[in-house]
Predict the structure of Glypican 2.
Amino acid sequence: PSEVLPVITFYIHCMSFFPVLYILIAACSLCAHCLVHFIIDHLLDSGEHLRLCPQDYTCCSSLMEETLARQSESDFLSAMDDSSQFLLTTFNQRHRKFDEFFRELTDLAEKSMNQMFTKTYGRLYTQNANVFQELFVELRRYYSGGSVSLGEVLAEFWSRLVERVFSLVNPQYQFSDEYLECVSKHAEQLQPFGDVPRKLRLQVSRAFIAARALVQGLATGRDIVSKAAKLNAAPECVHALMRQWYCPLCRGMPTLRPCHSLCLNVMKGCLANQADLDAEWNHFIDSLVQVAEKLEGPFNMELAADSISVKVSEAIMHMQENSVATSTKVFQGCGNPRPALARSRRSPKESRGNRRPFRIYSPEEKPTTAAGTNLDRLVSDLKERLRPMKGFWISLPHTICNDDKMAADVTNEDRCWNGQTRGRYLPDVTGDGLVSQINNPEVEVDIARPDVRTRQLIMELRVATNRLRHAQAGQDTDFMDSEYGFFHHSCRLSSHFLNVFLHKLAAGLNSSWIMATACSHPCSELLRKLKVH
């Protein structure tokens, strides 16, 4: 009969979903009339049992609907992984390359200094090599994230060096530890090394601060992407995913894709919290690019590493040339030292070394870089990869829905699944972010309850961006004078503190605990600048 023809057609579509049943029916010798009644009475349900899909004739049982809902969540998370893979790969690879490069530069700078100073100064250097070795130990510790002040490290180096050099340029005297300590205390006033310590501190500090901030920033970017891409889908999101991707199967239309606008509304509802990352994410990417540009220019790590041995040699030469004037002032401030006891006669070579033990390197002797202009290439490649990352989170729904496996093409709006049947999807596409989902027709989102983990990621981005911005100015946020509105080295936002603080903050608890903790914590100035209290 003509009234059952649509049912037969619908069932044939269902058979493409259940091929085993199709084979059984094809083998059946029943008449068409019996077949139709068998389908209606025994195989097709009215759909009244369905909770997510339209309650019409359906191929799906309640159990199948639940199974497909779980599958839709899995498909969604896979789409998230696929879409974020470029970011994860970029941050991982660039973090490794820059980290290896900066460590290699430091190693080669120390090796070059050791070789050239040994060749040039002989025993005078090897007997005092521990002073130089300790400098590089501390530089590595700083770069690796240790609680080290570069200013203090360099000041200690020059303090120890002035004691050693002062003894070498005055071999006719015997100096006690107390006397040499007095020499060290007068060093800032006397400036025995001229202006070299200031220049080296400026160059090395800026380069190491920027290098460390960049590498830490790349690690932060990797972690943010990894965490944001693995946030669990809310039940309302899973239901909407099921309705757009698998309800067409239950209706016997397995090849029908969701309308593009339907897909966008579902994804914007599911990814509402991630979209709120976008503003801070863009600031973070901009700051990474700007620090990279600094390393390419005035904060060049290659030049800074090269300059250490050159400037140290210049400083020693300056003190050698001004040894008489420097010694006279020291004797006036610290008193006359005791004459040295008679010593065995030195070899001519050693005597000559005592009279003029140090010299400035010629250009061909200056330390070589780790890989020529490799830093320029690394920075150029990084900037090229970072800039397209801006706007990633807000455009993620479009990225997923532009995949022809996920949704119909935007030009195919009349021949797609609109949530009920084949046809045009009429509702407007909602805006981006959590607040805009108040009128989302596909996903019910509680805009009054932001996701705590997403708010934590926003905070982490702000902290990282703050560090990068200060690194652009050559400032280390761990060791800055609080009287200028910056932060003390005791400001350490541990992951535990950050988690507890953000959980209470995101939960809307304006409690005395939050206020007391924020104000008493060493990072209170940082927390105020981040506008979290």
The two ends are 73 Å apart (CA to CA). The mean pLDDT is 80. The beta strands are 173-174, 338-339.
